Amino acid sequence: MADVERTPSARWGQPGPALEGTWAPGAGLGRVLREIPRYRGRVHQWAWVANRVAGLGTLLFLTVHILDTSLVYFAPTWYEHALALYRHPLFGLGEIILVGCVLWHGLNGLRIAISDFRPRLWAVETQARLILWTFVAFLALYIPASIIMGNTILHKGILGR
Prior knowledge:
This protein is mostly helical. It has five helices and no strands.
């Protein structure tokens, strides 16, 4: 197998020459995390990973938000405690990260949706350019938003009061 070209052509769970057991069931999360940076998917892979992480971060926020909002009805004193906890500056940092997650997930999702309507945009070189433009748009929106939010947190507190 040493003379076989190393490309990620194996199906998930079926090791091939490129992934030789890496993705096999039971390989372990540690092994998977060690192998991810070795894959040569370049910017496409990192856009995919960032999209999944941003989606999971947003999902985590929505889950916590639904649960803590339900406390208003079921346990009002716990809700008041949760609000006091959310006034901590670390939660402000979490909100800045949340804005980044929502922005990246939304912009990257828009890129994918536009590409779905124009199949010629799925060419590797075109996608690399589109991912770059998505990243530029992300930075153009995220940097000012994070500066404004961070300034508000530093000078006025978490709620801007």
